[in-house]
Amino acid sequence: MTELLVGCGNSRIKKMGFGKLAWDGLVTIDHDPNCGADIVHNLDETPWPVDDNAFDEVHAYEVLEHLGTQGDYRSFFAHFYEIWRALKDGGHLFATCPSYKSMWAWGDPSHKRIINAGSLSFLSQEQYELQIGTTAMTDFRWLWSGDLRCVHAEDDGEHFMFVLRAYKE
């Protein structure tokens, strides 16, 4: 198994997963050259220097809210495309970010966007089929061709934790 830890910082703790919480083939990426990441790269710059279909799992803990800006749908889809591109078919993204209810969601001056359960709908081709024309969901299929479907989402008021599965043709 191969795993990518996005925005690793100085931690290598596996906080989420199916089964054991130990790394098998960890690769790390971060913008900070002093944190010992395997790949040093500004995550706001795409494409990321990782191969297509290279990872069984991608982990992103408290990092996605630091990328792009709220309302910048192009950067939202660009960042999630990099995750989808790096995942193998059937691979999983395990992620955490502040709950929109948390004082830290916008209290931290380095946070640039909120991600919640509604945000994840825009990453699923299945959700587009179900919702376009019947709900207020905007159709971004002209821009987004990836497919990340939510298999778990939980918001405890402080953290929003979610797992997405990559679907590829």
What does the model show?
- This protein has 169 residues and is of the alpha/beta class.
- Helices cover 18% and strands 27% of the residues.
- It is built from 4 helices and 7 strands; from the N terminus they run ββββαβαααββ.
- It has helices at 73-86, 104-107, 117-121, 125-131, and strands at residues 3-6, 26-30, 39-40, 55-61, 87-98, 148-155, 159-166.
Strand content: 25-35%
Give me the count of strands: 7
Tally of contiguous helical segments: 4
Q: Reading side by side through the largest sheet, how are the strands ordered? A: 3-2-1-4-5-7-6
Helix content: 10-25%
- Which stretches are poorly predicted, pLDDT < 50 over at least 5 residues? none
Order of helices and strands: EEEEHEHHHEE
Q: What about the largest sheet?
A: 7 strands, mixed
Instruction: Give the class from helix and strand content and strand pairing.
Output: alpha/beta
Q: Rg, please?
A: 15 Å
Mean pLDDT equals: 97
The protein's oligomeric status is: single chain
Ends apart, CA distance between termini: 21 Å
- Choose one word for the global shape: globular
Summarize the structure.
Helix content is 18%, strand content 27%.
Please outline the helices and strands:
Blueprint lengths: L2 E4 L19 E5 L8 E2 L14 E7 L11 H14 E12 L5 H4 L9 H5 L3 H7 L16 E8 L3 E8 L3
Parallel strand pairs: 1-2, 1-4, 2-3, 4-5
Antiparallel strand pairs: 5-7, 6-7
Which key features would you list for this structure?
single chain; 169 residues; alpha/beta; seven-stranded mixed sheet; 27% strand
